[in-house]
Amino acid sequence: MTKKTVQQSEFDELRERSLLRHVINTSTEGDADSVMNAMDTFWDTYFNGEGTKEWRLRGNTLDSAIKQKSPKTAMEIGAYCGYTAVRMGRLMPAGSKLISIEIDPLYAAIATKVRARGWNIFFSSRCAFNNSLFLFFAVPLLRRWWSTPA
Length: 150
Description:
The protein is mostly helical. It has six helices and three strands, in the order H-H-H-E-H-E-H-E-H. The chain has helices at residues 8-26, 32-46, 52-69, 83-89, 105-118, 131-147; strands at 73-77, 97-102, 123-127. 26% of the residues are buried.
């Protein structure tokens, strides 16, 4: 009998699914700060605090930019698990639009659930499965979304 080993990609999927379970179990629906805190706690624990200081610095820089520009429309390319979308969305004006494109279908699904839990701004999410399809899909969609009023 051969022993089946877990491949790296399968391990990664387990990690992201665990993150989603943690967010659902420990955050308050509709409270972006609660969702972000749940995600921060998960990753801080998972990575034993490594990179936490740098991640907070990047997050604060993004917060400053969103507050300063107050965009009605923003685009995220590469959603991963939705943290940045929640972070931006909580600071965007009411009625804003966030266009989020993720190439991996699992990450797109997780990000959609995390964003929905964290805030109620209208957002659009598209998933493309490979780079050529991404370009085929994204360029026309971006043109249409960008020209649509928020």
